[in-house]
User: What shape does this take?
Amino acid sequence: MRQSKPQLIINGKRIDGREPQDLRQIKMEVGILKNADGSALVEIGGTKVLAAVYGPREVVPRHQEQVDRAIIRCRYRMLSFSTLGERKSPAPTRREIELSKVIREALEPAILSTQFPRAAIDVFVEVINAEGGTRTAGITAASLALADAGIPMLDLVAAVAVGKIDGVIVLDLNEVEDMYGEADMPVAAMPSLKRVTMLQLNGVLTPDEFKKAFALALEGINKIYQFQKEVLRKKYVEVEE
Amino acid sequence: MSSTPEIPIIPKIKLDTILNVVTKGFHIDKRPLLNYRNIEVVKNVAPNADSSVLVKLGHTQILVGIKVDVGQPFPDNPEEGVLIVNAEYIPAASPSFEPGPPDENAIELARVIDRSLRESKAIALDRLLIIPGKKTWIIWLDIYVLDHDGNLVDAAMIGSMLALAQLKIPYFEVDQVTGSIKIDKSRYTGSLSINRYVATVTVYKVGDVLLVDPTAEEEAIASASISISVSEEGNIVGMQKRGMGFFTEKEIEQAIDISLHKGKELIELMKRFSS
Assistant: This one.
């Protein structure tokens, strides 16, 4: 049962003690699965998302292959126990089908897919624990996994959500803020090239609020991008030793 | 699993022609880039539906129908009525559409329309309640693409908004003893209350040029698009970037300006059609 809306901003601070422009605590790891060609785990606050990449590999079924490029296939899924409350049925929901497409289209502009004609690059995003921002964490993780798999890309893709809660524009919504806030806007971009690859808005913003929120999102994306580069660099230093 | 779609083969000569015309500031049918094609609306095409509207946007045809039903409100939102949006790309509409359950494109279309209507509070869902927490009207809004010649989202939103504006709530009686509800669809209690009109303007990127309302041929060579829903108050009430390409920050700002401007025009047009 939906409770009445809690106060989301108290004395200028958010319910988890953050300032409006703060990210939650971030932890990233790459190469966590043995079998996958690339893998990554991204934790942001209580949200935990695993991404695995296979490929470039042969396309099965064969008729799906494209002669001039690799196809990218993506599946976003929430594990049955990942959400608060009831168990989620493992059958794909309409939301998961949409998000699989949205995540694929967020990654697609970064991948140099024409280098692997007739091949497939498979991206699996599994939400282990959902506390807001699973699609953005999924994109961040998937792009790390793609890099870990050695797939040539123009840039990494980093993503974060911004939103409006109690009239304040904030970065990186958590579950409660997402549920009771006035707007939720996930954004993904290739930070070095300044290209936006995903933009969604669920809620109401005035044009001025949008500008402010969009700028805040790009700032947040840059911070996440620094984490991504650091964790990839660390892995290769370890390999050299 | 979502997979890279098969890109239709477009003869290079056609591709070059379209790009050439678009860079000069025109659609291939000689319209300026930011003009919509002719919009035609036919009301009540399916009299058995509680409301139905056929929208023609150039050669694109979309049929939107509504059936209302009494049921339970969602347990997580007992104070509001229920709106359920569905979309289907029927195989008659294009050689590339196949029979079967709605694919990711149809699901995305339905969810974009659903979110824009819901978040903008375009219709007064709270006034659909019959017995709070127990009984409510459920609005089933179904979108069928009959002929695909580009720009489906914008046409679907026009159709959905007009179908909702036409919708009349049937006469009903609550049995005080059993709590059951008798519906008489030959009489009406009143119209559905519309809080505000919402329009969706999709801005497409063809080459480096931004345009609205492409034909299917132009849409096929667009690298990306962004659907922006605007309310009659000039607020942004929904957004969704689609397609395999990207937008620069500046292009996003331009797209917002375009949609605020064109959205106002579409809303005026819709109001004229529904009066």
